[in-house]
Amino acid sequence: MTTHYITIHRVTPDNRALLTRVDDDVFDNPVQPELLNDFLANPSNLLVVAVAGDAVVGMATGIAYVHPDKPIQLFVNEVGVSPRYQRQGIGKDLVAELLGHGKRLGCVEAWVATEVSNTAARALYTRLGSEEDDEQAVVYTWSLTD
């Protein structure tokens, strides 16, 4: 258990230096400055981080999007917390912060998908008041590289 004080921040172009030091296993891969710049240049993209001391120990990303036939929604894309900081409510705080930003942007609904076997994520989303859909989803992917 850690004794560091955790703060939650929305990452913007002005405070991107927060991502200078990131604990292992927060993101799937190392943060690449050019990709971070591209991400932050789009105001529909949201990135919130949990910081302990001078290190990012958790993150959540989302995107606010609109369809031609539906009002704006928030898609919660990814949540990651360093293993040594898990089970301390950081994931819950990160998602709650994303949901708050989505609400301020005018989103009328937020949604997330996770693996059926990911019991920790499912418990997190339930604690945040979400409802699990009855229908199971199937995910398809396409490789767009040669």
Helix content: 10-25%
Radius of gyration: 16 Å
Tell me, what's the shape? Answer: globular
What structural class do helix, strand and pairing data support?
A: alpha+beta
The largest beta-sheet arranges its strands as 1-2-3-4-5
Q: What's the CATH C level?
A: Alpha Beta
What's the CATH architecture? 3-Layer(aba) Sandwich
CATH fold call? Aminopeptidase
- Report the sheet with the most strands, covering strand number, pairing sense and barrel closure: 5 strands, mixed
In DSSP terms (H or I, runs of 4 or more residues), the helix count works out at 3
Number of domains: 1
Unreliable residue runs: none
Query: How much β-strand is present in the residues?
Result: 25-35%
| Helix-strand pattern | EHEEEHEH
Distance between the termini: 46 Å
* CATH homology superfamily name: Gcn5-related N-acetyltransferase (GNAT)
Pfam families: Acetyltransf_1
InterPro entries: Acyl_CoA_acyltransferase, GNAT_dom, MshD_Acetyltransferase
Protein name: N-acetyltransferase domain-containing protein
GO molecular function: protein-N-terminal-alanine acetyltransferase activity
